[in-house]
Amino acid sequence: MTPIAPPRERLLRAAAELFYAEGAAAVGVERLCQTAGVSKRSMYQLFATKDDVIAESLRVHGPANVAGYFPDPAAEMPPRERILHVFARLEEQSADPSFHGCPFVNTAIELRDPGHPASAVALGFKQRLESYFQEHAERLGAPDPGFLAAQLTMLFDGAAVRAVMHAEPLGGVALRAATRLLDTAGA
Question: CA-CA distances (angstroms) from residue 16 to 20, 64, 68, 77, 149?
Answer without folding.
Answer: 6, 11, 16, 32, 27
